[in-house]
Amino acid sequence: MKLLNKTNRYYIMAALAVFLIGTLVFYVMLNQIMDNDANEQLLIEKEQIAQQLDQLGTIPAKGISAGDRIDITLVTDTTCPSCKGFKHDTAIYVRESGEVLPFRQLSFLHTIRHQTDPPKSCRITITKALFEDDDLILTIVKSMLILLSLLLLTMFEINRRISKRLWKPFYSSLQKLEVFNISKDYSLQFQPSGIREFDELNTTLEKMTHKISEDYHSLKDFSENASHEIQTPLAVIKSKLELLIQNQNLEEKQMKLISDAYESASRLSRLNQALILLTRINNRQYLETKQIAIHELIENKLQHFEELIQHKRIVLTVALSQPIVTEMNPTLADVLISNLLGNAIKHNITGGWLRITSSGRELRISNKGETLLSDPSKLFERFRKDHASAESLGLGLAIVKQICDFYSITVSYEYSLQEHTLVLVFPIAQN
Fold first, then answer.
1. Looking at the chain, which residues constitute the CATH 3.30.565.10 domain(s)?
2. What is the pLDDT of residue 366?
3. Going by CATH, does the domain composed of 196-282 fall within 1.20.120?
4. How far apart are CA 311 and CA 424, in angstroms?
């Protein structure tokens, strides 16, 4: 998730929480205000009714105009506790609307005094409708919800646009980093953004990429020069040792020592060449590509290994029913197939078998070999060997993995009951 989206998500969650709590508090406060207002109106009407009755000295036949409804009843017991006080939220059926609606009632006792008649005690109940107040509260709350929702959406959109504009220099720097190629001899240059933090970041990135580029080219030059300088004396050593081997006057012990030295020099030469190849692949020095027919390359390479296959009495089965054509550098394609076949033949047992099959974009090379002791996926690591064989450098499958990664070829190692299988899935050719 992008930082901008994550920030907006937290912003919306916080704003929504405040929004809901604020709405609840506002509703409670508004409801309390309306409740107090209804009580105050009933108390005012109570005083008005008491004054009217005192002025008239009797209960008028037409009743008194107060509240939504007023009931006056003569009583003899003036100590009745239920005859006075508020009765909150009384539900009364209203015949006109056919609904049961909420009302507020105020009951009180009043003594009517007349000059000629004896005093009369009466119970007065004033009823005031609350459904109009409830409708007003709901209307206000709904209006507030709509207004706050619009405000929240507006603030979110403004914040999104402002943040997107402020983060534009960051994404510009990120795009330059994505296309930065360490093998190219250039340094990144960033435009001033006007934002202190981003300018400091860009300055640090410029220094860092410049240093990385310098270190890379220094290491590349060192590796190439060192490999070249090592190869020359190795060739001289091997040639001198070959001359000594051809000397007929050497004793058997001396011949053995010279042969061991020659094998070690040859091994060191192969190791140097393998490391040079891995370095060149990492440095992306094999950029020239063309269409390579993998099935034809396999057939040609099998002819080169024919004598070794016959020597180890390996039963060969080739079933390349579906040709595989891919875009690769010819040199790397040759190295890839040579290492795959060489690995399958070298680690095969005498009298074993070798099967090469294809299906769609998948190539499978299976051979019979010794029992595998380690994790198959670990064999793609450099200098990783399942058996401590003096002949193996432990770089063959590492080179295969490096080439496959370079061309987005999926490679995996499968093992079951002395059957070793390398599976390559080539990408679909782009038109």
1. 290-425
2. 92
3. no
4. 27
Angle between helices 396-406 and 252-282 (to 10 degrees): 10
φ, ψ of residue 295 to 5 degrees: the values are: -65, -40
Tokens of 148: 């706050």
Mean pLDDT computed over 147-161: 82
Residues 6+ apart with CB under 8 A from 126: 42, 45, 46, 49, 66, 67, 69, 70, 105, 106, 107
pLDDT at residue number 106: 79
State the Cα–Cα distance between residues 358 and 412, nearest whole angstrom: 15
CA 395 from chain centre, in angstroms, equals 35
Q: Residues 217, 219, 222, 223: is their CA dihedral positive or negative?
A: negative
Query: What confidence score (pLDDT) does residue 390 get?
Result: 46
Span(s) in the chain for CATH 1.20.58: 196-282
CA separation, residue 48 to residues 67, 74, 114, 117, 250 (Å):
11, 19, 18, 22, 141
Cα–Cα distance for residue pair 234/393, rounded to 1 Å: 17
Question: pTM above 0.70?
Answer: no
How far is 200 from 211, CA to CA, in rounded Å? 17
Average the pLDDT over 208-215 and give the result. Answer: 83
β-bridge partners, 325: 293
The fold for domain 290-425 equals Heat Shock Protein 90 (3.30.565)
Q: What does R_g of the chain's alpha carbons equal in angstroms?
A: 48
Residue 291, C-beta contacts closer than 8 angstroms, at least 6 positions apart? 325, 326, 327
394: pLDDT strictly greater than 80: no
Tell me how far apart the alpha carbons of residues 358 and 337 are, in angstroms, rounded to a whole number: 14
Which is nearest to 228 in space by CA: 171, 275, 281?
275
How deeply is 314 buried, as exposed, middle or buried, from its count of CB atoms within 10 A (0-12, 13-18, 19+)?
Answer: buried
Question: Which pLDDT band, with edges at 50, 70 and 90, does 141 fall under?
Answer: confident
